[in-house]
Amino acid sequence: MTSSEKAIRDPLWETVHLDAMAVSIIDTAEFQRLRYIRQLGLAHLVYPGATHTRFDHALGVYHLTRTGLQHLRQREDVPQEAWEGEELIPYAALLHDIGHYAYSHALEELEPEHLPAHHEEVSQRFFASPSLRDALAPLGDDVPGRLAQLIRGDSKIPLRGLISGSLDLDKMEYLRRDARFCGVPYGEVDVSRLLQGLMLLQDPETGLYEVGVHEKAIAALESLLFAKYQMFRNVYWHHAVRAATGLYKRIVEEAVRGRLIDPEDLIGPTDEELLYELSRRGLDSKDEIGRRIAKRWIPALRHRKLPKRALELTAADLSGREVESWAIGDSPQKRAVEDELAKELGLESGEVIIDFPVKQAMFQLDLLVQRRNGTVQRLGLEGVEGVLDLPRVARELYTTARVLRVFTMERREIAADTVLERITRPLAAV
């Protein structure tokens, strides 16, 4: 190890070796900001150990990516053109979360008018910063744009699947890290087996190379998919995590709507910086919404006085009915229903939150697999019978993981029919 390289101790992967370029990137203010953005947003209010950050996670993804590249290099009969852009892959892994908003993914559930862009698109703005641009300069003038393409999933580089895809190393890392710090047994993934099974395979239809996996690693891939389902059901969509997330989104939504903050101002602040600034502006505001944000909602979030469950409906409770598409996001139509319910319950505007989380790509698969007989085939949403069958029950698993909840800032009870008649319709006959 040279003087410009570093080794960092990590509780999950033990020693992470950083090359000189990675050290330069990490030393920028833009990357150091990730130390103060929690990986799981507000989950630490439920799982006290979940205070790990995007900084830790990014180092882990970088480590797994370098390890994965080493395994791929040991494979024979891969033409040189398949390695095009290899030098960019570790740094795309390191920087894949550079554009995250405060409290990670929570704000991305808001309607588009309340946000400048998705965090993967925001990354490109950070690449334009002088310090990060200087750190990346040795790789070439066009590198910021090429890295942004890799992070967005728009790149044509054969190795792009390590950064964005069905088997990207981000998923392996966050499932293991999140489970470890939450103290739950659900996120165990056989990372070693998956890395050993990585291959650069030629698509039978296009002839182009991309990242795939050997059939021997399919069982480990199946465990990754099931671990993802378990983590969503038990951690990411835990009722108190969703209550805290709903309150945080409502704070930001109202702040943007009331012009306490411009959507562009959401780019850059860390978790605590954003809450502090919203509180400060709310206290300075003469508007009722501003003062409610500063004196009621933000203190409730900080002191874990979270919205209460007034109603909870499982997949069985929703049998035969379909939730309206406008009721899934944070649409104006849903907000009107929430405020209508708030008035009926004797609550203020904004103090009823309807929550029905969505993750349509939970079991998304689009991956080349080399069978034991040497043939290559594409693994899609239906899986491969007798090889990978979990995707065949994906819809049922996804449905059971989702729960429709209504939260209220003060304890109330709501009859199921009161909500169902407003935001659902009978399921269309097939």
3D architecture notes:
This protein is an alpha+beta fold and 430 residues long. It folds into 3 domains: 6-197, Hypothetical protein af1432 (Orthogonal Bundle); 238-305, no CATH class; 307-358 and 402-430. The chain has helices at residues 20-26, 29-32, 54-73, 89-94, 119-127, 130-136, 143-152, 169-182, 191-197, 218-236, 239-257, 271-284, 288-302, 332-344, 394-401, 416-423; strands spanning 6-10, 14-18, 198-202, 209-214, 308-313, 321-323, 352-355, 367-370, 376-379, 404-408, 424-426.
- Helices and strands, in order, run as EEHHHHHHHHHEEHHHHEEHEEEHEHE
Radius of gyration of CA atoms, rounded to a whole number: 23 Å
The averaged pLDDT comes out at 91
The major sheet is characterized as: 4 strands, mixed
The fraction of residues in strands falls at: 5-15%
What is the molecular shape?
Answer: globular
Q: Give the low-pLDDT segments.
A: none
User: What CATH first level of the largest domain would be assigned?
Assistant: Mainly Alpha
So how many helices?
16
Record keyword descriptors for this entry.
alpha+beta; about 10% strand; 3 domains; about 40% helix
SSE topology sketch:
Elements: E1 6-10, E2 14-18, H1 20-26, H2 29-32, H3 54-73, H4 89-94, H5 119-127, H6 130-136, H7 143-152, H8 169-182, H9 191-197, E3 198-202, E4 209-214, H10 218-236, H11 239-257, H12 271-284, H13 288-302, E5 308-313, E6 321-323, H14 332-344, E7 352-355, E8 367-370, E9 376-379, H15 394-401, E10 404-408, H16 416-423, E11 424-426
Helix pairs in contact: 3-8, 5-7, 8-10, 10-15, 11-13, 12-13
